[in-house]
């Protein structure tokens, strides 16, 4: 997963918390030094119960092939966890892939919170035909045939910046959510301006500020063009508003060539009713092209029981796309 220097700087140096939390293993010789391994996390302001705490997401673990088999991954991780715990960081969480899951859950004592709540909504007939293993010629011929979408009946504006009204919207939206990264204006301003990636967002404004917004990203692979619902936040209980935001986003993604809309959404999330109303369905494990796991390890939190119950968590695609 190559990254530009701008992306690395954005991820590790320019994050809203303003702290770089990376440990290195370096071999020193007489005339040079060799970087052998890296363990890196990114800090966030998080909500845990009624408190605001610092949490970190484990994102990058790299070991030079010449230094593998020496336990550097585990050593670096444990050293960093000890330092973070002394600094009062509440927990580390993340989404290991198949290659690294064993290391996190067995050797670093993470608690599994699987499965991730991926869901999908077809936007074009070609996506359904490929999933049903129809011949490629038939699927390709149907790429322009849309799946009916709900109408977006509200006038939305495209978001160019996130002001303080997004702070109060997040507080209202997350009032009954025990665990989540804070999706306030500073986070959104950083998260949805990742270098080299194009996001779009639309909002509905009221007399007292923003009442809801949706953010998306289009990703094209060899297999499919997918539209990701990065975030959907709206006034608590206003399912109709959530539906209107999603309907607008899906129409925009379909017009841009997306065959399917994807989202990460728990059935207990405050916005789940909107996803269900517009036709999102759970994505079965066997249909997932990449197996991603979900886990957490407490560090300095006094509310560990909250962390180990997946029903307490709020997640969205904003927690993922760092590739």
CATH superfamily of the largest domain: Gcn5-related N-acetyltransferase (GNAT)
Q: Helix and strand succession?
A: HEEEHEHEEHHEHEHEEEHEHEEH
Oligomer state equals single chain
The geometry reads as globular
Using the 3D structure, state the CATH architecture of the largest domain.
Answer: 3-Layer(aba) Sandwich
Radius of gyration: 21 Å
CATH class designation of the largest domain: Alpha Beta
| Backbone structural class | alpha+beta
> Tell me about the biggest sheet?
7 strands, mixed
Can you tell me the CATH topology of the largest domain?
Answer: Aminopeptidase
Mean pLDDT: 90
Tell me the number of strands.
14
Low-confidence spans: pLDDT under 50, at least 5 residues? none
In DSSP terms (H or I, runs of 4 or more residues), the helix count works out at 10
Strand content: 25-35%
Query: What percentage of residues falls in helices of 4 or more residues?
Result: 25-40%
- Count of domain modules: 2
The termini sit apart by: 6 Å
